[in-house]
């Protein structure tokens, strides 16, 4: 919640309160790979992770792809990322468990501070996964969901217990050759979540995975694979954070979502990495006939982010709702957006985003909408709005549209602006002081997005829009 | 009797352009004053300056409210002292609902925590009187409102915030007959012996339910003529130019 109003000289929108995230634990890993990337390192990781053979091969092939690919030439500058300095695998000295009491004290305390076990206890979550550095340390799921055939586990367990399903889907939607960082992901991925919802099953209460990167100079490469079968539904929440170090950390996660005929998946993420993080995440969903994918995406942290969740509307009437908010402050370059591929008739998409930049931060909204020849009567509406809180901050919108299908109904609305003096005057003329007026306007700006966020993250969002009073009030 | 609002020799402009050129005007407690004047004469500027719009620069003269100078006060402080402006073109503010804005504003001007239940009751009943649909309380302030709805929302705020001085800038302009009627009843409901109104209008129908005490004619940044309510009819019949002629002849 908002803090007490304290008289201050300058008016500003608060940064995220980071103290909670910045508490770092002692390095207590049992094993860390050497930094950099070689075939030996990959073999070593694979052995330690006890991969099935096909996965070891998969990793080595991905490494080869990685070595042969250049860095992306568009988007934020990534040259400061030196892969030779990134430790790709950090194994905590904890075995995965379904009992918080068995999780080592300091790791458990970290998740306590983040409120994860509490939410689980209050039954506002039907299942929880908690990853610490490269491995998942805790996993649970409600008994009745298990009985209905729902699977929710870490990827490593899934590889052995549900190997045929994993093998059928793993990195088929986001292939390693997609770009350099998906190739990297294919080579060094570790941890993440596997969710399988059988036909017709409705998971009423959300499942949540939380990813915490504690080790300095490390990379996190978790893989999320979700399959929602015909007529089934699920709400999946992902949160991520890391304490701040002076060296660059890298996050190159990958999310693959399969939404089958008539199924519905809501996938919410709030990413609050520290400001030394390069966040190069790839997320994609494929939606079959009458299926619905709903993305709710909040990007608050990291030094550099490239994040453009993609929805492939593959079956007739498939639908995508994308709701996103990005907040870039000092030292941050957040390049976010969404992409939609209409590949079947009567598919529809609704993209709605807000970005805020302040204190020299840069926020770019990038979107790509493609309507293929096979997708007559596609409908897509894009609405992106940016608010710059001062003159040092930057904001850009870069929408790309490629329309081949007939009878497409495409709407695009982009607004970039500052807080209007007339709006401030209007509110202050009603007795509201300037700082509160600014806060109300900023809160109002993100309101359509904030109301989509899971509750605990909406609170986090509130912290973000804290405003302090001006001193002249005497 | 002491004046509620007392303006002396006010000189003000915007971006180097001089608009108010030595304007004096006083409004007593419990009085209703009307400002008439052709387009562009500086009427809206005057109200913005009284409300403390930071865009306008005041280079001379004085503004006092209840005997105290308010020139150095910020806009929100003037509002808390009891000044209110119904805007000629109210701003659209996305993301802030009418109810949220009013609750925050009421808390600010009264300095007391607003109790939700009585606040909602008052809001609901006033909206009914102004013939506003109750769901408008949850709509974003003025966003997508028609001209008439915007002006009714201004009067709603006037009634909820209950200031000492209501400045109405062409609140009746562009409204249909029924809407003018509603707005005019709203203003009449607001007005009592303890507060005052300063009304800019081109349309005398908003005044029908009020007893006008004084009329000021503003032309080219100055008050060029003052008188009782009969001045309204006079101008309606003969226009502004003859006043200017009369004023210059008299000099
Ligand atoms: N913000 C502004 N910037 C430039 N000129 C302005 C501004 N506000 C008012 N003016 C000018 O000042 C004069 C008076 O305007 P205004 O006060 O709106 O008149 P009225 O309300 O009597 O029609 C006009 O010539 C108008 O163009
Ligand atoms: Mg005007």
In the predicted model, the low-confidence regions of chain B spanning at least 5 consecutive residues are none
Please count the helical segments of chain B.
Answer: 8
Strand segment tally of chain A: 27
Q: What is the string of helix and strand elements of chain B?
A: EEEHEEHEHHHEHEEEHH
Give the overall shape of chain B. Answer: globular
User: Based on DSSP secondary structure assignment, what is the total number of beta strands of chain B?
Assistant: 10
Total count of domains of chain A: 2
CATH topology of the domain at 3-92 and 165-249 in chain B: Rossmann fold
Instruction: Walk across the major sheet of chain B and give the strand order.
Output: 6-7-8-3-9-10
Largest interface (C-beta under 8 Å)? A-B, 25 and 28 residues
What ions, cofactors and ligands are bound?
Answer: adenosine-5'-diphosphate, magnesium ion
The rounded Rg of chain B comes to 18 Å
Distance between the termini of chain B: 30 Å
Mean pLDDT of chain B: 93
For the record, what CATH class of the domain at 3-92 and 165-249 in chain B applies?
Answer: Alpha Beta
Characterization of the model:
The complex is a heterodimer of chains A (474) and B (251). Chain A is of the alpha/beta class and 474 residues long. Chain A has helices spanning 19-22, 39-48, 53-67, 105-113, 116-121, 143-147, 155-161, 163-169, 180-188, 421-428, 434-450, 455-464; strands spanning 7-8, 29-32, 90-92, 127-132, 135-141, 151-154, 192-197, 207-212, 219-220, 223-228, 233-241, 249-251, 254-259, 264-272, 277-280, 282-287, 292-299, 304-307, 310-313, 319-328, 333-342, 348-357, 362-371, 379-388, 394-403, 409-418, 469-470. In chain A, the strands form 4 sheets. In chain A, strands 6, 7, 9, 10, 12, 13, 15, 16, 18, 19, 21, 23 and 25 form a 13-stranded mixed beta sheet that branches. Chain A starts with 6 loop residues before the first strand and ends with a strand. With 251 residues, chain B is an alpha/beta fold. Chain B has a domain at 3-92 and 165-249: Rossmann fold (3-Layer(aba) Sandwich), CATH 3.40.50.300. Chain B is built from 8 helices and 10 strands. Chain B has a 6-stranded mixed beta sheet, sandwiched between helices. In chain B, α3 (98-110) runs parallel beside α5 (147-161). Chain B is globular and about 55 Å long. The two termini of chain B are 30 Å apart. The chains are: A alpha/beta (474), B alpha/beta (251). Chain A binds chain B through residues 420-423, 425-434, 436-437, 440-441, 443-448, 472, and chain B through 51, 53-55, 74-76, 78-80, 84-85, 87, 90-91, 93-96, 100-101, 104-105, 108-109, 140, 157, 161. Adenosine-5'-diphosphate is lined by residues 14-15, 17, 19, 37, 39-45, 55 of chain B.
């Amino acid at each position: 919640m908002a803090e007490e109003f304290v008289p201050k000289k300058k008016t500003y929108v608060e940064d995220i309160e980071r103290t909670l995230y910045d508490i770092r634990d002692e390095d207590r890993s049992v094993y860390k790979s050497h930094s950099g990337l070689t075939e030996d390192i990959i073999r070593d990781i694979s052995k330690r992770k006890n991969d099935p053979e096909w996965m070891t091969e998969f990793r080595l092939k991905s490494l080869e792809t990685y070595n042969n690919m250049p860095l992306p030439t568009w988007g934020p500058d990534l040259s400061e990322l030196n892969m030779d300095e990134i430790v790709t695998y950090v194994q905590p000295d904890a075995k995965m468990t379904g009992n918080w009491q068995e999780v080592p004290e300091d790791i458990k305390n970290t998740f306590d501070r983040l409120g994860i076990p509490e939410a689980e206890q209050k039954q506002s979550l039907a299942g929880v996964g908690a990853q610490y550095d490269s491995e998942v340390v805790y996993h649970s799921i409600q008994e009745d969901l298990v009985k209905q055939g729902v699977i929710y586990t870490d990827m490593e367990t899934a590889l052995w217990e549900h190997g045929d399903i994993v093998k059928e889907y793993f990195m088929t939607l986001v292939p390693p050759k997609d770009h350099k960082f998906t190739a990297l992901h294919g080579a060094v991925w570790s941890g993440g979540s596997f969710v399988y919802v059988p036909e017709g099953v409705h998971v009423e209460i959300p499942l949540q995975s939380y990813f915490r990167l504690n080790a300095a100079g490390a990379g996190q490469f978790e893989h999320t694979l979700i399959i929602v079968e015909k007529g089934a539904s699920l709400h999946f929440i992902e949160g991520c954070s890391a304490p701040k170090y002076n060296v660059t950390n890298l996050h190159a996660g990958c999310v693959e979502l399969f939404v089958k005929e008539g199924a519905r998946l809501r996938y919410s993420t709030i990413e609050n990495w520290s400001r030394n993080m390069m966040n190069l995440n790839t997320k994609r969903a494929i939606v079959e006939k009458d299926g619905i994918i709903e993305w709710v995406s909040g990007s608050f942290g990291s030094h550099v982010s490239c994040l453009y969740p993609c929805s492939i509307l593959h079956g007739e009437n498939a639908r995508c709702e994308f709701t996103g908010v990005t907040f870039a402050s000092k030292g941050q370059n957040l390049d976010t957006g969404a992409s939609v591929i209409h590949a079947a008739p009567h598919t529809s998409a609704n993209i709605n985003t807000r970005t805020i930049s302040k204190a020299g931060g840069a926020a770019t909204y990038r979107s790509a909408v493609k309507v293929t020849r096979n997708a007559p009567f596609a409908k897509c509406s894009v609405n992106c709005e940016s608010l710059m809180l001062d003159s040092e901050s930057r904001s850009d919108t870069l929408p790309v549209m490629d329309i081949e299908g007939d009878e497409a109904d495409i709407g695009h609305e982009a607004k970039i602006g500052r807080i209007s003096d007339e709006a401030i005057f209007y509110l202050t003329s009603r007795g509201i002081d300037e700082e509160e007026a600014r806060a109300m306007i900023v809160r109002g700006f993100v309101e359509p997005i904030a109301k989509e966020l899971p509750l605990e993250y909406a609170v986090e969002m509130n912290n973000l829009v804290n405003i302090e009073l001006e001193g002249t009030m005497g | 009797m002491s004046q509620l609002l007392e303006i002396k020799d006010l000189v003000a402009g915007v971006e180097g352009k001089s608009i108010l050129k030595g304007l004096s005007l006083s409004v007593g407690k419990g009085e209703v004053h009307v400002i008439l004047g052709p387009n562009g004469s500086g009427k809206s500027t005057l109200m913005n300056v009284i409300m403390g719009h930071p865009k306008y620069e005041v280079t001379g003269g004085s503004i006092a409210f209840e005997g105290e100078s308010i020139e150095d006060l910020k806009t929100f402080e003037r509002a808390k002292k009891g000044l209110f402006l119904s805007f000629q073109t109210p701003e659209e503010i996305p993301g802030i609902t009418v109810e949220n804005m009013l609750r925050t504003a009421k808390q600010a001007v009264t300095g007391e925590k607003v109790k939700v239940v009585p606040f909602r009751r008052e809001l609901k009943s006033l909206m009914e009187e102004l013939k506003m649909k109750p769901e408008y309380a949850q709509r974003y302030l003025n966003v997508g409102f028609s001209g008439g709805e915007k002006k009714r929302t201004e009067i709603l705020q006037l009634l909820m915030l209950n200031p000492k001085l209501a400045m109405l800038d062409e609140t009746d302009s562009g409204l249909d007959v029924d809407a003018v009627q509603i707005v005019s009843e709203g203003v009449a409901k607001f007005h009592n012996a303890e507060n005052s109104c300063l009304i800019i209008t081109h349309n005398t129908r908003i005044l029908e339910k009020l007893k006008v005490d004084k009329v000021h004619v503003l032309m080219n940044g100055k008050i060029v003529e003052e008188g009782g309510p009969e001045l309204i009819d006079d101008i309606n019949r003969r226009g502004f130019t003859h006043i200017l002629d009369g004023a210059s002849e008299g000099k």
